[in-house]
Design a protein that fits this description.
heterodimer, A: mainly alpha, 4 helices, disordered C terminus, B: mainly alpha, two-stranded antiparallel sheet, 2 strands, ATP synthesis (chain B)
Chain lengths: ~190, ~280
């Protein structure tokens, strides 16, 4: 084989020139990749990641915001409820108080009315008693004069005697209360 | 495969009765004519079509990633989506998941590796180019050298020079007598074998892939011009060339990915103290 003679070189012993060409070529490749290609791609990867993460973050922020708003509404609602309950309680208490006041007022009023009535009753009774006393005295004197046959009516001394008699009568009535009314009509009859 | 191609070539040559037998492609494939030649500071530069393919592949790849990332939007367009998917594959799949939590800063480096290897490997099946610059050992070697320097530097930076070298020389948790065996292996492994295998794996895959394609393609072309059984073998060879092209497509992606993932694991070893 003739061509084998032409090549004494071994394929594993490359010429220096070729190595240098290889060095230059690969150095250029390295330069381009380090300075140009890799930074661009990394930038895009970062941008892409940020775009995705940013979207997620935005969604999370919105969710948090919504949750916060919900919490706020709930808090407000609870506040309103407590307030309403407070107002209701207060109103009830006030009503109770008013009712109480009115009741005491009414009781006082009634007590006063009752007291006045009693007073009046007592006064009328006294008046009636007084009137009766005079009447009974007059009648008794009349009757006694009629029985005796002479007028004793304007005799002052005899009047004292009537009064004494009546006092005795009253004393009896005082011992057996309520019999005055019963005795007087008896005497009146 | 090359040897069997040779055998096939000789058999066919004999069969056709001498003269112009099938000349199996050899190393010459990887040493095309120089287009331009110059010497700079005592270093000879020979610009061949492989060099030009390397430049074109690199330039197109860079144009693509720049176009994809230039107007990067949150909602990506088609171009950006494709570029981003490739970048994310390395950034998330290797820098973050293989290198570890501190790995993201290495994403541009790993992506450079991945895209550079992928673009150049891809030239293996692009019509008219049809050879990957990675089948020239110089280029994988350069990449492996970058990786070698980087993972040692990161190891020293992250763990401190003392601890980094001590852990490599005296692997923690190994019985003392075993160091006689383990220390040389570890030393060789970390400072020689790793970068060498990294470079050779890529180189050999692309080299062999190219040889396969060339042998089947040239074999098919040769066989179509013969008689006898060539009527059968010619189409078979052509079919194999097509099948191998698809296989090569797989290798192209796989090797670019494997190179980057391995570099990721080396970086991981440098960053995390535990081996």
């Amino acid at each position: 084989m003739s061509f084998l003679a032409a090549e004494s070189e071994s394929p594993l012993l490359p010429p220096v020139g070729e190595i240098i060409i290889g060095l230059i070529a690969f150095t250029i490749v390295l330069l381009v990749f380090f300075k140009f290609v890799a930074p661009r791609f990394e930038q895009v990867f970062r941008a892409r990641r940020e775009a995705i993460e940013g979207g997620i973050e935005r969604a999370e922020a919105m969710q948090a915001e919504a949750k916060a708003a919900l919490e706020q509404y709930r808090a407000q609602l609870a506040e309103a409820r407590t307030e309403a309950a407070q107002i209701r309680d207060q109103a009830r208490a006030e009503g109770q108080q008013i009712l109480e006041e009115l009741r005491t007022q009414a009781q006082e009023e009634s007590a006063r009315i009752v007291a006045r009535g009693e007073e009046q009753l007592a006064a009328s009774r006294q008046q009636v008693l007084n009137e009766l006393r005079t009447h009974i005295g007059t009648i008794a004197v009349d009757l006694a004069g009629r029985v005796v046959g002479e007028s004793l009516s304007d005799d002052a001394r005899r009047r004292g005697t009537v009064d004494r008699f009546l006092d005795q009568l009253e004393g009896m009535a005082g011992n057996a209360d309520g019999r005055v009314g019963a005795t007087v009509p008896e005497g009146n009859r | 495969m090359t040897s069997s191609a040779h055998t096939l070539g000789t058999v066919l040559a004999v069969d056709s009765g001498g003269g112009d037998g099938f000349q199996a492609p050899g190393l010459g494939e990887f040493y095309p004519e120089t287009v331009a030649e110059f010497s700079l500071l005592g270093v000879d530069f020979a610009i061949t079509r492989i060099t030009i393919i390397l430049w074109i592949a690199t330039a197109l790849m860079l144009a693509f990633v720049i176009a994809a990332s230039r107007k990067a939007q949150i909602v990506p367009g088609k171009l950006q989506f494709i570029g981003e998917s490739g970048y994310s594959l390395v950034r998330d799949g290797i820098a973050r998941d293989v290198v570890g939590p501190k790995g993201i800063p290495f994403a541009p480096f790993l992506a450079s590796l991945f895209f550079f290897i992928l673009a150049n490997n891809f030239m293996a099946i692009v019509p008219f180019a049809q050879i990957s610059p990675m089948s020239k050992f110089a280029f994988p070697l350069v990449l492996a050298a970058f990786c070698w320097v980087l993972y040692i530097y990161i190891g020293i930076r992250e763990q401190g020079a003392g601890k980094y070298f001590k852990d490599i020389l005296f692997l923690p948790g190994v019985p003392k007598p075993m160091y006689i065996l383990v220390t040389p292996i570890e030393l060789l492994q970390n400072f020689v074998v790793r970068p060498f295998t990294l470079a050779v794996r890529l180189f050999a895959n692309m080299f062999a892939g190219h040889m396969l394609l060339v042998v089947f393609s040239l074999g098919a072309v040769y066989l179509f011009g013969r008689d006898n059984f060539s009527v059968i073998f010619g189409p078979v060879s052509a079919l194999m060339a097509i099948v191998m092209t698809f296989f090569e497509l797989l290798v192209i992606f796989l090797q670019a990915y494997v190179f980057t993932v391995l570099m990721g694991t080396y970086l991981n070893g440098s960053i995390e103290a535990d081996h």
